[in-house]
Amino acid sequence: MLNSLLNFLIKKPAWSLVLFLFVVGATLLQIQNFSLDASSESLSLDGDNNLELYFDTQKTFGSDESLVISYTANEETILEPNQISLLRSLRDDLLNIEGINSVISILDVSLFQSPPLSLIELVSDVYTIDNGKADLSYIEDEFKNSPLYANNLVSTDLKTTALLIPLSTDNPEVLINEETLKVIIKNIRLTMNEYRNEASLFLGGVPMIRNDAIAYIKSDLIVFSLAVILAMSIMLAFFFHKIRWVVVPIMISIIGALFMTGVISAIGWKVTVISANFFSLLLVMTLSVTIHLVVRYREISNNNPDATSSELTKQTLTEMIKPCTYTVITTIAAFASLTSSNVKPVIDFGLMMSIGVMIAFALSFISFAIFTMLLPKPQTTNQSDQFLVLEKFAIITDKFGKQILVALTVAIIISIIGVSKLSVENSFINYFKKDTEIYQGLNLIDKELGGTIPLEIVFNDMANAYWADSSLRDDFHEVHKYLDNIPSIGKVLSIDTFMQVLKTSNNGKAPNGFLLTLGKNNMPEFAKEQVLKPHISDDSDQIRIVARIKETTKGLNRNQLINDINNELIENFYFNQEDFYFTGTFSLYNNLLQSLFESQIKTITSVFIIIFVLFLFIFRSISIALIAVLPNIIPSLIILGVMGLANIPLDIMTITIAAIAIGIGIDNAIHYISRFQNEVAKDGDYLSSMYRTHSSIGISMFYTAATVAIGFLVLILSNFIPSIYFGIFMAIAMLSAVIVNLTLLPKLLIIFKPEMNNQRLIK
After folding, report:
1. Model-wide pTM > 0.85
2. Superfamily of the domain at 2-37+212-420+590-752
């Protein structure tokens, strides 16, 4: 079948091109359906019920999907008449934006001490700045001291306030449409621009984080993919000196990446933050295969100047099909190992790249055959692809074997130390550069308005008892105080917040159960929506405490914070574990991070076991399998070690690099050993075979590594920090993989002289 396909491609290149373009074109039409997903669901664990609990909580208490505008007056306080007027105008302009149904500001919230209200007055009427019932001579004191609004809606210096813009759909499990959100945010920013002369304004909130992350990722997909292509084109031109060997590999790579994008779009597979760099990776995978084909084609052409295009193409593809097939299998194994994770986006990324690698392989061979047959045969030159650095690698391997082993041993030890320091803690704010609006907005909200990212604690079967049980109310008061004293928590909001307001209005005494029930039943619906519904539900019999986390807290450890709170609730407040659960964006993200960390070891272990078994099948030798696998542990160790030593935490993108590094390294090992076997078979001389292998397949390996490394380093210009780290560590992965496979791997082959082609060939 393979020969039939190959013969068809070579004999009927024009028809092959027509069929090829038809299939590719049909697939590319689907790209219009391409979409990115940075929702809470994209941060979920496979089979974890925390996401379901999260949506259930939103159904019960209301959505936490709100945009936040921080408004800082230039000189005066926000309570000055002209600032009140500006805030009113800004709020009204925001309400005129399609998709915005409400805006919560200091103008709209219920006031309870402006003037001081009795308990009966407090629960029977609504006093706001906007309805004119509030006494403005009291509002400064209330906003400074109110447990509801101080360091929440208003900063303690009264210079900064927040305007909350709730974003909700009819179904709490369905986030607002990405495109709708994009338009809303665009219009909000345009509206904010009209007020920047009067105040300093920043837009923030969880939906804003999601929107900006998607925007940066899309920008990286488009702008940096083009930049990567340009960088790789320059490198190919430097190595090959002929336009066709620049255009052909680049065209094939682009076609492969776009084709897979079309496939993903056709089946409705959403790309998440974790899988956002799939396009760049597919460019790399396709380019890698194509460079190997180009180098071998040129090598055969130089050795056989009289050969026809069809002969050159057929020989090239025939010789390369086996090692490339093996590399595809092992690379798929590396990516498939990601499915051992219980993080759904990681699983999807593993499957996505497994399919993509197969497509890249198939398209590379088909495209290469078509293009080489349709293009005129290149003129044979005496120019060799030999590169001085490859000769240096061979000499170093030959003459400095002990030094190589010592250096790599030291590198491994240092890397292991670094791995021991590896962490997964990373805050949303650190995903963005300091000069971005999202960074500045989150920083300001953390500093002045009590934080952005909510950690929610939901208590079961307690809401109805709360109104009648004074000891239970005291317990929640103490829990609230405990949370409020944690440095990384900016603002705590709970039913106890409202109880403190009621206490102030009841001459400093906590109201009894009768007064509470009376007040609750008679409170205006508007006030209930603001102060009761977000925190207590009689229908579900649940109580919710919302602790807003300051993402800028130095040394923030999400998992430790949640564990400490959990233990405190059980050991010192005597709640049972089944009495409560954690949810909210903070909890979802923590679950993701911890699972990523745990799955890292599992993934790396499983991929090496799988690849070792595959090597046994490919080479029919335990010794060769060990020699191939062991050096390729090093790139992953180096990457993780550098991250640990540099205090760079694993994040949503870098978590996959170890598996990618393994796949890249193993590909190099297969190509090298396959060619080494052929060379040893000629004369049995392992040392000479090493020199010849370096000057042939070593060139392909080096060209690929250098080209791709330079391409990925373009990502350091991104505004999205995870993309920057991904680019840097992908470059390190490429270079470290090619170095160990051009030094340690051949040295081990020379030292141990494993059987090649089922014979012990020693000279």
Report:
1. no
2. Multidrug efflux transporter AcrB transmembrane domain (1.20.1640.10)
